[in-house]
Structures are given as structure tokens and as C-alpha cells.
Amino acid sequence: MTVEAQIVTRPHPARRKRISLLRMLAFITLLVIALVTVYPFVWMVLTSLRDRTTVFTGPFIPEQFIFTNYPQAFVATQFAAHFLNTLLIAGGSMVGILFLSTTAGYAFAKLNFPFKNIIYVMLLSTMAMPAASLIIPLYLQLKSIGLLNSQFGLILVYVGSMSPFSIFLMRSFYETVPNELIEAARMDGSSEWGTLYRVVLPLVRPGIGTVVILQFLALWNEFLYATVLLQSADKQPLQPAIFNLIGQYSTNWTLLAASLTMAIAPIVIVYVNMQKQFVSGLTQGALKW
Q1: Per-residue pLDDT, 284
Q2: Where are the domains of the chain?
Q3: Among 1.10.10.60, 3.80.10.10, 1.20.1250.20, 1.10.3720.10, what is the CATH number of 78-288?
Q4: DSSP 3-state helix, strand, coil percentages of the chain (rounded to 5)?
Q5: Which pTM value belongs to this model?
Q6: C-beta separation of 51 from 66 below 8 A
Q7: What are the Cα distances from residue 44, in Å, to 100, 111, 116, 181, 268?
Q8: Could you tell me which residues are beta bridge partners of residue 246?
Q9: How far apart are CA 242 and CA 255, in angstroms?
């Protein structure tokens, strides 16, 4: 490279300084956002490790870490039983949501059938309904079919209420798959189900990972439907059980923080194991939308 070429390609000092300043401002902004976001989580963990009398009066970092709050919270909330209930409800709902979103999303993206656009718009319109407005109709409907106070009934509610967003998300990912691949599979004699599960699904794994993380997080932390539709305490998931620790006149904040810390552990594990698919899915979705 000649001297003239180096002079042409080398950024101007003022421009380099401006780029460095912009990067520094971006870094500071992201750092502030990260600190604000992580602060409640750090406060919760530290509160679960401090003495009850120092929750609001002691230093931010406890002078002495107390681990007895966790076994006490485990017993007070009957954590094991409610954890299994949450795992059963969230797992069963996740299976139903994944099946509907992968199949219906593929149909809306790659198949032609009568009234496809009308059905799709009607499906998306259900996303505009707030959950609180559906409590009474869902309560009466489950009562009429004998599924009130039933974990299976709650699973059906979750699948029906959370599938539209997942279908919308998966449809966007399916549209990125070239039609030529699907036509080639059909010409080779593959059935529509075989084409979906052998050809298309491996190409949209980031979308599936995104659906799993977003919906599993929503299912694990759902409170309203679980509280209203399940009256028996032994059938309820973690969130209503933990909410019972909040008293009318006083609350044991250390036990509450310990219970919440244990409750969010599965969410952290799922996200850590699927973060690559989640980031890739959000990136592809952003490019598509």
C-alpha cells in the first residue's frame, strides 16, 4: 500500500475522536441500563442472605451472611410440592404451545387454504385482550365443563391464551425458509408432516428457542390465572404459594426473598442453556420484521 493510499484510508483524527466519544457514551448508557436492571435481582439475593431485622436498616451488603433463610423458606412454602406443580403445569403447557405454534405457524406461512388471512387476523386479535378481562368467561367455561380447580384445565387456558403470540412469531421465522427447499422435498415424495419436521424445523431452531424462553418465562411466573382457577392450595404452582408469605400487617422479607430466589433458578438455567438460540432468534426476527 502506497503512502497516498494510507493517507486516504486512514480516518481523520477528529473523526476517530468522535467515534471514540460515541462508543464511550454508548458504553456508559448500556452500563447504567444494566445496573438498573440487575439491581432488583442483586437486592433480592442479598436480602435472602441477611438477618430479618436489617432488611431496611442495614447496609446494602450484609455484614453477616445467613443461609438459614433458605431451608426455612423451603418448609414455609412447601417448596418441593409447589415446584413439582409448576414444573408439571409449565411443561405440559409448553408442549401444547410448541406443537400449535410450529404447526399453525407453518400452515399460515407456507400453505394455502380458504380464509387463511381472515383466520390469521382473528387469531392475532386475541392478543389485544387483557388477561383480566377474560377471567370471568374462563372461570365460567371451565366450571361448565368440569375443569375448574384442575391443573389440566389451567394448562388448556395457558395453551389457548399464549399460542397466538407463538404462532405469530413462528410464522415470521417460517417465512425466511426458501420455498424451493419445501418444493424439492415435496417432489422427492415427502409428506407435509415429513417436510415440516425433517426439512423446515431444523432451519428455524432459533425461533423455537425464542418461543421456549419467552413462553416458559411467562408460564413460570404467571400468577393471575393460577390464583383464580386453582382454589386448592395443594394444586397451586409456586407464585400463589410464595404470595401467601405476604402478610396484611407484616411480611418476612428474608423468607420471601429466599423463596423468590429459589423460584427463579429454573428460569436462569433455561436462559443460560438457550441464550445462543434466543439471541439468534431475536436477530433473525428483527431482520425479518
Answers
A1: 56
A2: 78-288
A3: 1.10.3720.10
A4: 80, 0, 20
A5: 0.83
A6: yes
A7: 36, 48, 47, 50, 15
A8: 251
A9: 9
* 140 contacts 228 by C-beta, under 8 angstroms: no
- Classify 231 as helix, strand or coil: coil
Residues 6+ apart with CB under 8 A from 76: 245, 255, 259
Question: Nearest 5°: phi and psi at 212?
Answer: -60, -45
The conformation of residue 114, written as its DSSP 8-state character, comes to: T
Coil, strand, or helix at residue 246? strand
pLDDT tens profile 41-96: 999 999 999 988 888 888 888 888 989 999 999 998 899 999 999 999 999 999 99
| Calculated CA dihedral for residues 162, 166, 169, 175, nearest 10 degrees | -140
Residue 204 to residue 211: CA distance in whole angstroms: 11
Mapped onto helix, strand or coil, the DSSP state of residue 189 is coil
Q: Which segments in the chain show pLDDT lower than 70?
A: 1-17, 248-249, 275-289
Q: Rg of the chain over CA atoms, in angstroms?
A: 25
Cell numbers of 263, please?
423460584
Q: How far is CA 196 from CA 67, 107, 152, 174, 200, in A?
A: 50, 10, 28, 10, 5
Q: Hey, is 115 helix, strand or coil?
A: coil
* Spatial separation of the C-alpha atoms in residues 276 and 206, rounded to whole Å: 8
* Residues in Cβ contact with 173 at an 8 Å cutoff, skipping those fewer than 6 apart: 105, 204, 206, 207, 281, 284, 285, 288
